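Handout, page 2. Input:
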Amino acid sequence: MVVVNEHAWQFVCTVVSNCNCTRMNAVRKVKMAGSPGSFFFGGARMVVCITGEQADEQLSLIEGVMPPGSDSGLHVRLREDETIHLVAGELELTVGGQRTMLRPGESYFIPRNMPYRVRNLGMAEARALLMNVPGVSAGKYESLILVPPYQEGEAAFNGKPPVYKRPVHKREQDTYMFFGVPTVLHLAGIETGSELSLMESFMGVDGDSGLHLHANEDECIYVLDGELELSVCDSLLVLRAGCSYFIPRHCAHRLRSRKAARVMHWYTPGTLDPFVRMAGIRIKGPNDVGPVYPSPEQIGPILLLSEEYDFQMLVPPGA
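Output:
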């Protein structure tokens, strides 16, 4: 195991006391059952985590809990692309007339103007995270119901998705050791027309992302399991399972885990994943190896890459 050399990091890192959130403030949302941000659709309970208004219309995040038999009906989003990441259970997706089964850990990208239907045909409850880009705000949904929930049938729709986007069902993922944190790349920007990229980090006990910022991407995180300590905008917060947080670009932040934690990360636009691929170390899976930090010989190339992708490591992990 290679441990970061603090002296080698000195020319990379600059300690900052204030962040520069140029567009808006970071947003913390704690999931609360029965809160005003919950509604029912097609038998599913939808918990609004981050609204478009809170994220400067860049994205919105909903947690969907679908009991057996629930059905969204065949519908189409006219303005937003949607990404479904299944956390638990199984779902049947019909996208553009093609049926497929979505299983835990799999993701599906659905471009705007593409008819789709989501049903839980199993015996167990399904839980999914739904990300829309651009963001959806209350009262501004632009969806067209083609076939209502619980009704069979087909319906014609003349709209077409953008020519540079297509549906993507991601079953297999690549995993990288990225600054000491096992990171699973669920969806890459090249697969979503650069709208977003989706990653999942597996932070062990005393895990640390380092203090960093993204100049190009807004980030939305959701804690799946465990507990996360988040330093952002000169504030220190504790996020537990079910909590979400929106971090605008140019906002310095740091993620640390006193206990093991699984965290979902959405980035928009989807321009960060090439940096993760090139700066990270390819591993077989999240549990393949322990934390491995960049060696002094690797820091120079990583510095050049970080400049190219406007990723700034301000304080290294463990420092």
